[in-house]
Design goal:
By secondary structure, this protein is mainly alpha-helical. Helix content is 80%, strand content 3%. The protein has 12 helices and 4 strands. The longest helix is centred in the middle third of the chain and has 33 residues.
């Protein structure tokens, strides 16, 4: 019970720490007269990925490859099958042209690239599969390309997205930034340590704990954001939030994790990556089934059922 409590406290610190850091850093940047576009591209975009990033940094430093991969791939599977599934059941999701032809394919590309980099046993007939520091640098290079695309999109004449910032003083912003960083560090360590102990006690692998409990916990902000967005009929935020998160998770967070410490890829993790790839293919295919460029309610039901089925199968295998 104490490990579950510590895990819950860790998640709370991560989520609130990320919120404090994003709000205060955005307010500080605004006080420094940094353009709104730059704030959205850097502070807001990176800030929403801090929970996954902090957990992976701590897990990488401990050499916990199972949790590193489980957290990233599990989050991406949850994002597509669970979050988009639930969101589209609430209200059909119609995508813009950029999302359909650039962002969703980039998300699918991230699933393909990580699958190839992790397939040493298959491609090179090695006895083990390892994502090396070189592989991590490759992922980070893809991430730079994605940032360049975002910068180009942000500076285009038809870019309309605005980011609200808090009206904090400079002193309050600095204090809250320090508080947010401290909460993120403390929460990340609590989650990694308590999840590792919990895995041993209930007989789960650290990969499975990362794939289920940790990945779902760190993806709760995306779930809440998407549900609120579709409830207000703002489907662009719901889809962009999920697709952007998946690209960040692989190219930025997994890339940095591999640079910190090479990642051992266990055989079951390859199945997780295949499911992640299949989810990306299904998302792209559903856009052209039925109404054009729309994920309807029936597709959402299929997504959710697939997620529940895969989680049940993964837990049974342990």
């Amino acid at each position: 019970m104490i490990d579950l409590v510590l895990l819950a406290v860790g998640f709370g610190l991560l989520l609130f720490g990320a919120k404090y850091l994003v709000d205060s850093a955005s307010a500080f940047a605004k006080r420094m007269n940094i353009p709104n576009i730059v704030i959205g591209l850097t502070v807001v975009a990176f800030g929403t990925s801090f929970p996954e990033l902090i957990i992976n940094v701590f897990a990488s430093l401990k050499g916990n490859s199972g949790m590193v991969l489980g957290n990233v791939i599990g989050s991406n599977i949850f994002n597509v099958l669970a979050i988009l599934g639930i969101a589209s059941i609430i209200y059909p999701l119609k995508t813009k042209s950029n999302t359909t032809w650039i962002e969703i394919p980039l998300s699918l590309l991230s699933a393909v690239v990580v699958l190839i980099l992790a397939a040493d046993r298959i491609l090179d007939t090695n006895s083990v599969s390892v994502m090396t520091k070189g592989d991590g640098l490759i992922l980070l290079c893809f991430f730079l390309i994605f940032l360049g695309y975002n910068l180009k999109l942000s500076t285009s004449s038809d870019y309309e997205e605005e980011f609200e910032t808090k009206d904090y003083t400079v002193l309050k912003s600095v204090i809250l930034m320090i508080t947010g960083v401290a909460m993120l560090l403390g929460g990340g360590k609590l989650v990694v340590d308590s999840a590792s102990v919990l895995a041993l006690k209930i007989g789960f692998s650290e990969r499975l704990i990362g794939l289920t409990v940790v990945s779902i916990g760190t993806s709760l902000p995306e779930l809440i954001t998407s549900v609120i967005a579709v409830s207000k009929r703002n489907v662009d935020i719901a889809i962009g939030n999920v697709v952007g998160s998946n690209i960040f998770n692989v190219f930025w967070i997994l890339g940095l994790s591999a640079v910190i410490n090479p990642i051992d890829v266990e055989p079951n993790a390859m199945m997780d990556m295949l499911v992640n790839f299949f989810a990306g293919i299904l998302l792209f295919a559903f856009l052209f089934i039925g109404k054009g460029k729309t994920i309807g309610r029936w597709e959402g039901v299929i997504f959710v059922m697939l997620y529940l089925g895969y989680m049940a199968w993964a837990i049974m295998l342990k």
